[in-house]
Amino acid sequence: MFRWKEKSKPKYVGSNVSPNTFGLYVLALSTDSQRTCFFILKLSKVYGPVFTVYFGMKPIVVLHGYEAVKEALIDLGEEFSGRGMFPLAERANIVNGILFSNGKTWKEIRRFSLMTLRNFGMGKRSIEDRVQEEACCLVEELRKTNGLPCDPTFILGCAPCNVICSIIFQNRFDYKDPVFLDLMERLNEILRILSSPWVQVCNNFPALFDYLPGSHNKVLKNVANLKSFVLEKAMEHKASLDINNPRDYIDCFLIRMEQEKQNQQLEFTLENLTTTVFDLFGAGTETMSTTLRYGLLLLLKHPEVTAKVQEEIDRVIGRHRSPCMQDRSHMPYTDAVVHEIQRYIDLVPSSLPHMVTHDIELRNYIIPKGTGVLVSLTSVLYDDKVFPNPEMFDPGHFLDDSGNFKKSDHFMPFSAGKRICAGESLARMEVFLFLTVILQKFTLKSVVDPKDIDTTPIANGFASVPPPYKLCFIPL
Question: Which residues does heme bind (predicted)?
C-alpha cells in the first residue's frame, strides 16, 4: 500500500515493508515498546520519516521525528484527528467519551468538557488553590510514614486523583477511605495491564480476546466497576440537581442532557457521561501518579540533581510558604528538572492510535481515509539533535548556557494537535507543585545505593510503568 508520489500524479501510499516481512517482527514488536521503537528507528533510516508497517495484516502509517509529527498533527490537525482502533477499548465499551470516540461525538464531548473544566478553574488561579490544598494533604500523609521505607504508589496517586475528584464529584476523599483505595487500585491495575505484552499482542490480533483467557478480562471487570461507580454518583447528583447552581462536572453534564433531550442525534447521554468521567478520572489520575512516581525514582537515582532543586527552593520559596505557579519563572533549574522527567520517562511512547479522517497528502504520499497512524513520540522526545545523549537524564537539556530555562518545540509528552491531552495545563501545574512541595518538606532517602537503582520501565506497551521501589521521606 506504499508508493512514492509522482510529481505530476499523486499515488496512494503503499508499503515499503510487506506484510510477510514485517509479520516476522510483529510478535516481538507487540510485546516490547522499546523493541518497537528500535525497529521503527531502523526502518525510518531506510524508508524515511513516513512509512507503513503491518501489525498482523493491518497496515499502519508511522510518523517518525518532529517534522513529520508536527506536519501531521498540527499543520494537518483536522485530517489526523481520528482515533485509531483500540480493540480492548471496544470490548470494554469505552469508545464514546473523549479518549476513544470519533466524529461528532468526540467533537461535542471534548468541546463541552474543555469549556466545563475551564469554568471550574482549569488553567486558572482557582484550580491552583485546589492543587495547593491537596499538596498540603499530601505532605501530611507523607509525614505519617515517620521516615520509614514505604512504597509511594498509592500516596502519590491519591493527590492528583483528589484534584480531579473535586472537579468531577465536588468532593475529595480521605487517603485511607476504602472506596477511594479500591478505585486507585483498579486504575493502577488497568494501566499496568494495558502496558503488558499480552494486551499489546491481543490489540493486534483481537480475536485472541474472545478465545483465550487472560489479564484483559481484569481490565473489562475494572472498567465496568468504575463506570458503575460513576453512574451511582450521577444518580445521586440527579436527585439533588439545581440547574441554576451546578456544583461540578457531573451537574453540568446532566443539565446539558436535559437541554439536548429533544435532539435526535443525541450525544449527551448517561452512557457518554459515565465513559467521559471515566476518561477524565483515569487520565487525570494514573498518568500523573506514574509521572510523580517515576520522577521521585529519578531524583533518588540522581541525588546531585535533587540537591540543586532543594537549594533553589530554599532560595526562592523558603521552607514555610507554599509553592505557587508564579515561583516557576524564578526557578529555572526546577522547571528544567520537571520537563526532563517528563521527557525522559516518555510516558506514552506511541501516543494513542490516530486515524486519518479524509484522504490526505503527506510527504509525497496520499494516505486513504480510515488508515491507522502510529505517532512515535519517542522519536521526538529522544531526538539527539535537540537533546544530546537523550538516553541520559540531564536537566541541562532544558537550560541554556546562562542557566536560564530553555523551551523546546520537541517537548511533546502530552502529544500535539487536535488530540492533545485535554488536561495538559492541569497536569503541568500538578507535576510542578507536587514535586516542589515534596522536596521543600522532605529529604528523599533511598533504601539502596543510588548507583544500584534501575530506572528501566517494567512495562511500556501503552505507557511506561516504573519498577516498584521504596524510599524514606525524612522531614526537613
Answer: 421
Give the separation between CA 251 and CA 243, rounded to whole angstroms: 8
Distance CA 134, CA 159 (A): 6
Looking at residue 8, what is its pLDDT?
A: 33
What distance in Å separates the CA atoms of residue 112 and residue 276, rounded to the nearest whole number?
Answer: 11
Q: How far apart are the first and last CA of the chain?
A: 61
Q: pLDDT for 85-134, tens place per residue?
A: 888 888 888 888 999 999 999 999 999 999 998 888 776 668 899 999 99
- The pTM is what? 0.90
Q: Are 215 and 196 in contact (CB under 8 A)?
A: yes
Which pLDDT belongs to residue 238? 94
Pull the grid cell for residue 48. 524515511
Q: According to the annotation, is 136 in a ligand binding site? A: no
Cα-flanking dihedrals φ and ψ of residue 59, to 5°? Answer: -75, 135
Query: Beta-carbon neighbour count of residue 384 at 10 Å?
Result: 9
